[in-house]
Write a structure and sequence with these properties.
Length: 152
């Protein structure tokens, strides 16, 4: 399971990315729309700014804006930012590789082989799907976080 911190980061990013280009969203507005604790959200937004995903603006029209296009920000990138390595076993991690202490042979390890299949499949999805993809597939249009429009 992903942490609330990562889930809130995705909610905030999708809300910001759904705004018309050049429009900013304040942390207070994002927190209100998505029922995220404001102080917690501010910390998340700062982490996203430090990572080069968001930028902040001051003043009357201030708030947070995407620093990069939504279609260049993958779910895997954001998940790793908040959760660390995604590999289920240390011997599968690219960035935090560590041989399992009780492993006799990685090449013959059935556990590693089966978890590698699952990890490869999830990594493929997470690293190729972007915020832009999620917004394009939103059944309610680009109006993320606003009231759901009812048909009829």
């Amino acid at each position: 399971m992903i942490s609330n911190k990562a889930k809130y980061a995705f909610r905030a990013l999708l809300a910001i990315a759904a705004e018309p280009e050049g429009s900013a969203l304040t942390s207070a507005e994002i927190a209100r729309r998505h029922a995220i604790p404001h102080k917690f959200l501010e910390q998340i937004l700062l982490d996203l700014k430090k990572a080069g995903v968001l930028d902040s603006r001051r003043g009357k029209t201030g708030g947070y804006v995407m620093l990069r296009p939504a279609d260049t920000v993958s779910f895997g990138e954001i998940l790793r930012l908040f959760e660390g390595p995604l590999a289920p076993l240390p011997c599968l991690s690219r960035n935090a590789y560590r041989r399992c202490e009780d492993c006799e042979s990685e090449a013959n390890c059935e556990i590693r082989r089966e978890f590698a299949r699952a990890y490869d499949a999830s990594r493929l999805v997470l690293d190729t799907r972007t915020l832009g993809d999620a917004l394009a597939n939103n059944p309610y249009g680009g109006d993320m976080g606003h009231e759901v429009r009812k048909a009829g």
